[in-house]
Amino acid sequence: MAETEMISNSENNEQFFEGVEKLIEIWFTPAKNADLRKITRQQWESVLKIVRCEIISFTQSEQVDAYVLSESSMFVSRRRWILKTCGTTTPLRCVRAVLSLARDVAGHARVHNVFYSRREFARPAAQLQPHDNFDSEVKLLDSFFGDGRAYIMGPEKDCWYLYTLLPLAGTVDALEKEQRDAGSGCGASEPDQTIEILMSDLDPAVMDIFTRAYSADAAQATKESGIDKIIPGMVIDDFLFDPCGYSMNGVAKDGCYMTIHITPERSCSYVSFESNVPVSSYDEVIARVLEAFRPAKFVLTVFATPDSPAAETPRQLKKFSSLGAYEQKDAQYCQFSGYELHYALYAKFPS
Ligand SMILES: C[S@+](CC[C@H](N)C(=O)[O-])C[C@H]1O[C@@H](n2cnc3c(N)ncnc32)[C@H](O)[C@@H]1O
């Protein structure tokens, strides 16, 4: 298994695990016969060695290959690659190898868009280069993609970092990019949306479900926690770690995915939820996620393109100063040339 850094907490004999993930998503410009799924499992295994993690399970739909990893997940479709890894993994170190495989094996020579994001780590000093600070991550990303933009949202300790290639709407850069994409004659844009809920300080009674002492297997943990009801109709590939920890990928017939990762240790409990399911309102999904995990605090991000069914959600969410039992502590709204983004930090109202 991966070289995961576990640090002992002498007070309760629990180990520290950095649940916070680094998330990179690369979209390639459509090209005839190009498909990232031409990259073989063996080639992905060598890529993931650079990241310091391994494949532990696999499932697929017609549109997407979904891998559960020793540290989170990877999704591969025709022109989109998503890698989400936690602990002390080093996902940005593999980008060069992925770009080479995309060009030489999959036939994808042009990058259309890139998103790299993460929450602030619980222990930033334990991370390996370039992940020990955002400036180094941005420097490395710029060395691959040239014209990136970096954003830091929210208060220092709970901030959320984003790097993307998208120029701001209305700027000369944006117009030039739109013209380049239109000129490629292959419809580089398509409706897209992503919701992420990054939760910390979770209800210990819920976290117990994701231990071997409580659940006999992953299927039991999935059912008992209500994960199977969050977005019904997904084929679920779940994994329960020993002695604790849980990861799952869900894929739907229409190509949508969801992914949940759980670090249940009390001193560092953390859960992430992500999906690209296209709905006109995320209210129900958010409510089900919060009901299932009961975090004390969470970061919510929603990206949507103007042609997505979820196009209104970044603006809708902007209006809420509270969400059920949660008070909005901070919120930011951004408009890129192809996406709208809502970021918000919520904490439970004091009881
Ligand atoms: C891979 S999972 C999910 C991490 C995820 N990013 C999250 O949202 O918390 C991490 C959990 O599994 C546990 N675990 C047990 N064995 C592990 C292993 N060999 N590699 C990684 N995590 C392991 C960790 O202690 C932690 O509770």
Automatic annotation (TrEMBL):
Keywords, in A-Z order: Autocatalytic cleavage, Decarboxylase, Lyase, Polyamine biosynthesis, Pyruvate, S-adenosyl-L-methionine, Schiff base, Spermidine biosynthesis, Zymogen
UniProt entry tagged with the keyword S-adenosyl-L-methionine: yes
GO cellular component assignments: cytosol
SUPFAM superfamilies xref list: S-adenosylmethionine decarboxylase
Catalytic function, reaction form: S-adenosyl-L-methionine + H(+) = S-adenosyl 3-(methylsulfanyl)propylamine + CO2
Database matches in PROSITE patterns: ADOMETDC (PS01336)
GO MF: adenosylmethionine decarboxylase activity
Name of protein: S-adenosylmethionine decarboxylase proenzyme
Record organism: Manduca sexta (Tobacco hawkmoth)
